[in-house]
Amino acid sequence: MDSLHQLVYQLYFNHRKTQREIAEELEIKRHTITTMFKENEWDARPSAPRREEVDSDDVYDLYFQENLSQKEVAEKLGLSSTSPIKRIFKENDWETRGRWDKPLTRRHFSSEEERKGASIERADKRQQELKKMREHLFGTECRICGVSKERTLAIHRKDFTEHRQNKLWIKTELDDINTDEWVSLCVACHRGVHWMHEQHSAEWNDIELHQQCNASEISKEKKWYELSDEQKEVKRNGLGEKETVSELRKRLFGEKCSMCESHNRKLVIHRKDGRPHDRNFLRSRENLEALDTDEWVLLCQKCHRYVHWAEEKLGIDWHDFEKGEYEP
User: Fold this and answer.
1) How many CB atoms are closer than 10 A to CB 300?
2) What Rg value do the Cα atoms of the chain yield, rounded?
3) CB neighbours (10 Å) of residue 53?
4) pLDDT exceeds cutoff 60 at 104
5) Phi, psi of 56, deg, nearest 5
6) pTM confidence score
7) Residue 149: its pLDDT value, please?
């Protein structure tokens, strides 16, 4: 072993200096010392965790007198984390203000079930506080249909930008939110708005303008649709007796949704003017044969549901969808 190796050995194992301190003292690279340890198979001491020291009196004054949070206290004292602050709280048995800036009392539970029950109770309380905060910011009624349900309304971003699902259940997020960029909607209208945007590229301003125009008009009840006497007199046009109702529907209206072109979902025949009719009306071969196919269209259940929603809530009829124009 040469003199340099002996010197490094003595400094490290006898004088208990670190490898970094030895490298600085001898003015050599840290890598050189690491190589020595590998070549001589020396076992290095495990590195002790660095413990940041802080005065408990300073922590007390900043937290209890100036009402700073633990994170703010750590930043004020130039600490890299809140761990030293939490350690001081534990050593002095201090009570924190808690997540909602309220005093917490230490509880001792007699069983694990009691502890879990208390945890669930605290979570429910936080959820209710957040719900009240959301209602204060965004209201309690759906912006489109005006319904106010017991269930929490969805908060929708007007520009349809994607966001984290739990974003609006975090207090810090709600504190910084711009309420002009968001709107509260019931579940049905929230889904309908997204369908209008995804299927027809409608923006929120178009949807809102339609809703305002539709709400200002007096809605008229649509007359129930039934076959006229002339239609009832229509005879079969030489159709084969073996053709089933299902085969007749496919021949008349096709096998895919006229809007999204899906053929995997269940398909229904929709009257373009939206007039209601008996649900069993289109299950009859005679009724299907008498129809004017230009007045009906085949839709999947999803599109059918939202076409009716758009007609009822926004005043958009089928011809608007066909033209792709949504201006009131």
Assistant:
1) 20
2) 36
3) 6
4) no
5) -65, -30
6) 0.56
7) 65
Residue (of 314, 284, 83) closest to 185 by Cα position: 314
Of 303, 300, 298, give the one whose Cα is nearest residue 253: 298
Residue 47, sorted as left (phi over 0), alpha (psi -120 to 50) or beta, turns out to be beta
Phi then psi for residue 182, to 5 deg, are: -130, 160
- Greatest alpha-carbon pair distance for the chain in Å reads 117
With left for phi above 0 and alpha for psi between -120 and 50, is residue 29 left, alpha or beta? beta
CA-to-CA separations, 81 to 171, 172, 282, in angstroms, rounded = 22, 19, 69
* Distance between CA atoms of residues 156 and 190, nearest Å: 7
Lowest mean pLDDT among 81-90, 220-229, 271-280: 220-229
The answer to whether 187 touches 151, Cβ cutoff 8 Å, is yes
How sure is the predictor about 215, in pLDDT bands with cuts at 50, 70 and 90? Answer: low
